[in-house]
Amino acid sequence: MVITTTVTGSDEYVHCTFASRYARDPISRFKMPESSMPKEAAYQVVNDELMLDGNPRLNLASFVTTWMEPECEKLMMSSVNKNYVDMDEYPVTTELQNRCVNMIAHLFHAPVGDDETAIGVGTVGSSEAIMLAGLAFKRKWQARRREQGKPCDNPNIVTGANVQVCWEKFARYFEVELKEVKLQEGCYVMDPCKAVDMVDENTICVAAILGSTLTGEFEDVKLLNELLTKKNEETGWDVPIHVDAASGGFIAPFIYPDLEWDFRLPLVKSINVSGHKYGLVYPGVGWVVWRSKADLPEELIFHINYLGSDQPTFTLNFSKGSSQIIAQYYQFIRLGFEGYKSIMENCQDNARMLREGIADTGHFEIVSKEVGVPLVAFSLKDTTRYSVFDISESLRRFGWIVPAYTMPPDAEHVAVLRVVIREEFSHSLADRLITDMKKVLEELDQLPPRETTKVTRVNAVVDETQSGRRGSVHPVKKSVSQAQREVVSYWRRISDKKTSGVC
Ligand SMILES: *Cc1c(COP(=O)(O)O)cnc(C)c1O
């Protein structure tokens, strides 16, 4: 914003940007500034700083929605000031969330009658949904053990080592041991046979993933259900299944309707799905639905008598926005089954095209499967010259954000790049990406062979952020930017520990 202003006591007209006067001194980063500034200046200062963020539309690392129709954005903006938890004041919003829960429950074949209410709740994302589902399993298991007069202080949960980090959070926060089925080169999902082998009397549930975060592959829930039923019969246990359908829950029903992964399988007691992934809503909204009332222990439901009416709630926090719930309802009625189906088919077509383009370069092994979440995960055939991390870094120059990461145990030696195909990632963008990828490969192919590649590169990246820029001379006194970088890298180290930032 350029504003012409007259400097008092001078005849001169000075042209300056409104905010530059306020930005001349460094903006306070850690302490609240002493004085106020005009709203236009604050806007410009914040907006200018945000320009240095990546462009969400080019962020191919994320499953999370980055585009919605203007009509829906209008609805969202007009409800940003509604606190979702004030259900008595905003009964229509509550009603819309209930309709969404019912629509999702039916989509996942929950055994509810047409005029029956499904059991489920809207959450901030799949993470909260998973905490709630896990907690329900833990309480059900504890109650059963108490009835049997057996100890109930050592619960565990069985998953593949490819689980998303929120399962580790659940395990740590709610004191449940996480028993992970190890992966191996060539198989990057949980093997149902190995999972069932790890089940014991203290297992609160086996969690299967519909759409592994790392490769998009669907785990075989049907086989898991079969094997676990057999084991339950043999042992007299009652170990259930949870399906983490964060990304696949809005893919499978539309393009693989015959795939049995949901409540059609008797042991599946709860399912989570991210509304802000292929549910096509901006972050953050997720959903968890239970098979029936009996699968959600009554003791976890709070009945708050808030402002005059009984409101059953089962969420981890109290206040939150309403916009995402309203947006989810908009998408359901706007698109309908037909609309979702066509969008998902389109994503699948673009994924196929991108996969072929990437394979045609001759440099890569495709790691993702054709059936699954629309993404392409691929590894380098020859890692002696450069690594996938170098490719990821070079693509950044063109604006593309393509994450590179190593696989979990026991496949840590495999490093991949991953491109997630969202609704707005068009055919022409896919074309463009392949062109830029070829340029990057051409450049990198000129480099002399290097010795340290692969996994060591991950540590190098961490070291770099820790000690400032590579090769720079470190001043004794920390600059503000250095201090800030250290704060950022401290948090990054904590959050990157396992999944190196893919979400
Ligand atoms: C994204 C994802 C999560 C976490 O979901 P949020 O909605 O981001 O909280 C959990 N599990 C899987 C498989 C995921 O892909």
Automatic annotation (TrEMBL):
<keyword id="KW-0456">Lyase</keyword>
<feature type="modified residue" description="N6-(pyridoxal phosphate)lysine">
    <location>
        <position position="277"/>
    </location>
</feature>
<keyword id="KW-0663">Pyridoxal phosphate</keyword>
<keyword id="KW-0210">Decarboxylase</keyword>
<dbReference type="GO" id="GO:0030170">
    <property type="term" value="F:pyridoxal phosphate binding"/>
</dbReference>
<dbReference type="InterPro" id="IPR002129">
    <property type="entry name" value="PyrdxlP-dep_de-COase"/>
</dbReference>
<dbReference type="InterPro" id="IPR015421">
    <property type="entry name" value="PyrdxlP-dep_Trfase_major"/>
</dbReference>
<dbReference type="GO" id="GO:0005829">
    <property type="term" value="C:cytosol"/>
</dbReference>
<protein>
    <recommendedName>
        <fullName>Glutamate decarboxylase</fullName>
        <ecNumber>4.1.1.15</ecNumber>
    </recommendedName>
</protein>
<comment type="similarity">
    <text>Belongs to the group II decarboxylase family.</text>
</comment>
<keyword id="KW-0112">Calmodulin-binding</keyword>
<dbReference type="InterPro" id="IPR010107">
    <property type="entry name" value="Glutamate_decarboxylase"/>
</dbReference>
<dbReference type="GO" id="GO:0006538">
    <property type="term" value="P:L-glutamate catabolic process"/>
</dbReference>
<dbReference type="InterPro" id="IPR015424">
    <property type="entry name" value="PyrdxlP-dep_Trfase"/>
</dbReference>
<dbReference type="Pfam" id="PF00282">
    <property type="entry name" value="Pyridoxal_deC"/>
</dbReference>
<dbReference type="GO" id="GO:0004351">
    <property type="term" value="F:glutamate decarboxylase activity"/>
</dbReference>
<dbReference type="GO" id="GO:0005516">
    <property type="term" value="F:calmodulin binding"/>
</dbReference>
<comment type="function">
    <text>Catalyzes the production of GABA. The calmodulin-binding is calcium-dependent and it is proposed that this may, directly or indirectly, form a calcium regulated control of GABA biosynthesis.</text>
</comment>
